[in-house]
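chain below, 141 aa
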Amino acid sequence: MPLLVQICIVAATIAFVAMAVVLIRAIAQLRSTAAQLERTMAHLDTTIPEIERTVVEAREVLDILGTTATRVDGLTKDFVTTGSKLARASSLMVNEVVEPAVQIAALVKGVRAGASSLAGTFFKKRGADSAASNQGGNHYE
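prediction:
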């Protein structure tokens, strides 16, 4: 066999061995990757039900919060309505009771002052008349 053919056969054998070594390493790496993937999947298998339960609980909490928010909204509307009614009632009280009561009180005060003034004038005059009659004025006994 010629030397060139022998060198080519050796080179091809070395290349084939090198490819076999690389292929064996790649397969070993694939095995370790597959083992890691299997461990990850096993962990996910135990974790996914917990995540599903958590999602279900979160949905329930959100539903409860939605219901609570609706109730709070209703209560807020009730408070607004009640506040409005109270404001109208107090306004009615001021307009229909307090203002007329103040006017009546002013009228009573005016009547009292007028009556006092009239009574004072009447009693002064009457007192002056009886003083004049006691001093020997014209009177009939």
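The radius of gyration is 57 Å. The CA atoms of residues 3 and 67 lie 91 Å apart.
thats it, cya
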